[in-house]
Amino acid sequence: TNARSGSNGLIIGVFGYALYFAYSRWRTHRTDLVSAAGFYMFPAAAVAFAILVFAWQRLRTMVLGSGQHQFSNDARSEQWELGIDRFIENPLGYGAGSSGQVLDYRLPDGTITIDSYPLTLMMDYGAIGLVAFVVLVFGAIWYCASAALDASAEEELLAAPMAIALTAFAIIKIVLSQADNLPLLFILLGCVSGLVYRQKSRQLIR
Predict the structure, then answer these.
(1) 85, 104 in Cβ contact below 8 A?
(2) How many CB atoms lie within 10 A of CB 93?
(3) pLDDT tens for residues 66-99?
(4) Is the pLDDT of residue 1 over 60?
(5) CA-CA to 135 of 20 to 30 Å: which in 35, 102, 122, 171?
(6) CA neighbor of 100 nearest in space, from 78, 76, 124
(7) DSSP assignment of 165-184
């Protein structure tokens, strides 16, 4: 779709999994020159990519945006200003599905829109809903990362791509309020719960 959120999600996925693969191979093959080189070269590759983002106009537009995205950036800033005022008026939220009407931010054609899911949560469910969502997502990322680093069975290695997917999801939701991809989150959380439970059970048996 040429959306910046999609481009950034792709970058997080590629770099995140490359880092985990290099670390995992380096941890299990300490004498392997390829794995060691990949692991220690990763910071240099990340810096080189960052330089490329600022040096290459097309890539910079894909990742950070350009003049054509300024309206979108301004709209998000205005929405947050309105949202903070509404949140201060009622920190407990206004009820499910009411965020659009409460914020009442309209495009030039009159369409009501909200571009950030945390803002939607603040309007609908207040501070409790926002905190619960943050704890749920980042707690799952923490458990996934811990399970991946302590993996002793082949299936436990799946925790790494799940952690990366959850990280990309969390970052994308900062600029995407659309709820259509939330079922993916619930599926991932179910997988994380099962994986962590099985890992803990094996550790208790040992």
Answers:
(1) no
(2) 21
(3) 655 666 777 888 888 889 999 999 999 999 888 8
(4) no
(5) 102
(6) 124
(7) HHHHHHHHHHS----TTHHH
